[in-house]
UniProtKB/TrEMBL annotation, chain A:
Its main location: membrane. InterPro entries: ABC_transp_permease (IPR001851), BCAA_transport_permease (IPR052157). This is Branched-chain amino acid ABC transporter permease. Signal peptide: none annotated. It is a multi-pass membrane protein. It comes from the Bacteria. It is found in: Cell membrane. Pfam families: BPD_transp_2 (PF02653). Belongs to the binding-protein-dependent transport system permease family. LivHM subfamily. The chain crosses the membrane at residues 34-51, 63-83, 95-116, 137-161, 191-215, 227-252, 258-279.
Automatic annotation (TrEMBL), chain B:
InterPro entries: ABC_transp_permease (IPR001851), LivM-like (IPR043428). PANTHER family: HIGH-AFFINITY BRANCHED-CHAIN AMINO ACID TRANSPORT PROTEIN BRAE (PTHR30482:SF10), HIGH-AFFINITY BRANCHED-CHAIN AMINO ACID TRANSPORT SYSTEM PERMEASE (PTHR30482). Keywords: Cell membrane, Membrane, Transmembrane, Transmembrane helix. This is Branched-chain amino acid ABC transporter permease. Pfam families: BPD_transp_2. It is found in: Cell membrane. Its main location: membrane. The chain crosses the membrane at residues 7-27, 57-77, 83-102, 154-172, 204-227, 239-266, 278-301. It is a multi-pass membrane protein.
């Protein structure tokens, strides 16, 4: 019984990170109808930025968050202005956006590889080994910090989307861009800011990932897949949906240790994805999946 | 191009390529690389049946390539089957494997399907790497010397593979099935309404595509005489197929053939010296092509052709995809 509780706590902590990670992908997809295939690459790049800040300037990863957010917000707007803006909308654009952003991912990987080689990098903070004992298990303090940051970020996002003009504009454009134009919303600008915001969120996920995992240039493929699984599971309707999707995935992965060998945990997300898409195309919780 | 003209050109090209190494003083290296290029062409064409004709971008075709290669290698090691039979068997297993994951996932459209294929590719690679009883794990498998063709002989087998792939590419596009696929690409629900069964058509194309890529995997195993899962199932292999199709012209009948030529040239000559740049180069190529010429080389040739003849474009001009990939925004 004790072991199950420990695994459950572990899954909840993991789910916090997953939710933060998935939200950037979901936001961009919900508004622009584009799957940002560079999502994993951006997470990886931001993990490297965090590592560099720590390694060269001794900036604590959690203190680096504001810098990374601004940096990746600008990067995201750059990607939109330089590339994504020129894609046609509609089904033809969907295939092209996949390939284009995939190209961006490859370029990011190569740049990181050239700058920092393919070696694994780890951030060793002073508190990396300190742990918290709770419910009969011992957990790294970093994981609690990551969970806390993720929850704060999700709440901040929720407030942004529901309480501000920009947030309302973003949600309106997600529902119907044409009507938004009629209502005087600058749709193109909402697209730009959304892409920036989604990229900044991926950047945040990268900071969090850098404190949890060893990173290398090919890091991010699994994160992209998991993010996608979560937005499919939870639907794009709300923070709650994303959080539930993240919880389901995290629990499935953590408890899969009972059923499959550890190297197959990556495959758990995929199996879950296929099963859900086939059985419940509308998402686990009956919410509308924006397509 | 009319059917007879196509078949005539096809037969002439096959004959010329068949006798080329006998009369031309090709070096060993060139001869081998051309043979391997034939295989890449066939695989890229096979990817294009699904990615181009139907518009379902697969990032996981390395899975079928690897399955085909390893099944063929295992058969040759254990039963001493003739290599062609082993390749075909490997291809069939790969095709069936494609159906296994494809049947549920092909109902998904666009990004849903594509992301699922990333998962398929990764999961297959992991299983293959750890299933060392079958794949030899990280130390791989060496093929028996006896019964395995030499690289010199493989030139002609590569040519046969390419010939089969070209015929299927042309046949698929010109047939009723091709029209059905184009309808599915354009609007899957509308296609269903006019009596095209999207599940059946897409399953069929994935099976064909997976079988062909699996046979190519078997060819590759024979060519290298040694295979290991990290290489056969690598994500880069799936990327390679996408690039060949995109460079040549995604959705066109013969574009991937020219794309494979460019790809091999880049790989053999540019990347031999700048190997650390290959991902970035591929990425930059993808970005540039999608932004400036979504139909790749085929689009470029058509553009030049139009400029020379000062003739407005027609959708029916040879090789162009049945669906307009670029619409006014």
């Amino acid at each position: 019984m004790g072991e199950v509780v420990v695994l459950a706590v572990s899954a909840v902590l993991l789910a916090g990170f997953y939710a933060a990670m998935a939200y950037g992908l979901g936001l961009i997809y919900g508004v622009l109808r584009i799957v940002n295939l560079a999502h994993g690459g951006i997470i990886m790049a931001s993990a490297y930025v965090t590592w560099q800040l720590f390694d060269r300037f001794a900036v604590d990863p959690f203190a680096a968050i504001p810098v990374v957010l601004v940096l990746f917000f600008i990067l995201g707007m750059g990607i939109y202005l330089g590339l994504v803006r020129f894609l046609p909308r509609g089904p033809a654009g969907a295939v092209q956006s996949l390939l284009l952003l995939f190209g961006v991912w490859l370029v990011i990987r190569n740049v990181v590889y050239l700058l920092f080689t393919g070696n694994e990098q780890v951030i060793h903070t002073a508190y990396a080994t300190s742990s918290v004992r709770i419910l009969g298990g011992s957990f790294s303090a970093t994981r609690f910090a990551v969970f806390g940051v993720a929850v704060i970020a999700l709440i901040a996002l929720h407030l942004l989307l529901t309480r501000t003009y920009l947030g309302k504009a973003i949600r309106a454009v997600a529902q119907n861009p044409d009507s938004c134009t009629l209502a005087g919303i600058n749709v193109e600008r909402v697209y730009l800011l959304t892409f920036g915001l989604g990229t900044a969120l991926a950047g945040l996920a990268g900071v969090l990932a850098s404190t949890l995992f060893a990173i290398n240039p090919s890091f991010g493929a699994g994160e992209l897949l998991k993010s996608f699984v979560i937005i499919v599971l939870g639907g794009l309707g709300s923070i709650l949906g994303i959080a539930l999707g993240a919880l389901v995935l995290a629990f499935a992965e953590v408890f899969a240790v009972y059923a499959v060998p550890p190297y197959l945990t990556t495959a758990v997300g995929f199996v879950l994805l296929v099963v859900v898409l086939v059985l419940r195309p509308g998402g686990l919780f009956g919410q509308r999946v924006l397509r | 191009m009319s059917r007879w003209r196509f078949l005539l050109v096809f037969a002439a090209a096959m004959v010329l390529l068949w006798i080329a190494p006998l009369v031309l003083p090709l070096g060993d290296y060139t001869h081998d690389v051309v043979g391997l290029t034939f295989m890449f062409m066939a695989a890229a064409l096979a990817w294009n049946w699904l990615g181009g004709y139907v518009g379902q971008i697969s990032f996981g075709h390395a899975a079928m390539f690897g399955v085909g290669g390893f099944v063929a290698a295992r058969l040759m090691l254990s039963s001493g089957l003739p290599f062609v039979v082993a390749w075909l068997a490997g291809g069939l297993v790969a095709g069936v494997f494609g159906l296994l994951w494809g049947h549920p996932t092909l109902r998904l459209r666009g990004p849903y399907f594509s992301i699922a294929t990333i998962g398929v590719g990764e999961a297959t690679r992991l299983v293959a790497t750890y299933w060392s009883d079958f794949t030899g794990g990280s130390s791989g498998l060496s093929l028996p010397l006896a019964g395995n063709p030499t690289k010199y002989q493989l030139y002609w087998y590569g040519l046969y593979l390419l010939g089969a792939a070209v015929l299927i590419s042309y046949g698929l596009r010109r047939s009723r099935i091709g029209l059905g696929l184009a309808a599915i690409k354009e609007d899957v629900d509308a296609a269903g309404d006019v009596g095209v069964n999207p599940t059946l058509y897409q399953d069929l194309v994935l099976f064909l595509s997976g079988t062909m890529v699996g046979i190519c995997g078997g060819f590759y195993a024979s060519y290298q005489a040694f295979i290991d899962p990290q290489d056969m199932f690598s994500f880069d292999r799936s990327i390679g197929l996408i690039l060949m199709a995109v460079i040549g012209g995604i959705g066109t009948v013969l574009g991937p053939v020219w794309g494979a030529v460019v790809f091999v040239i880049i790989q053999e000559f540019l990347l031999a010296t700048y190997s650390e740049l290959y991902l970035g180069l591929y990425g930059a190529l993808l970005i540039l092509i999608i932004l400036f010429e979504p139909l790749g080389l085929t689009g470029l040739v058509q553009r030049v052709h139009r400029l020379l003849l000062r003739r407005p474009a027609t959708a029916a001009s040879s090789g162009a995809p049945l669906t307009a990939d670029r619409r006014p925004t």
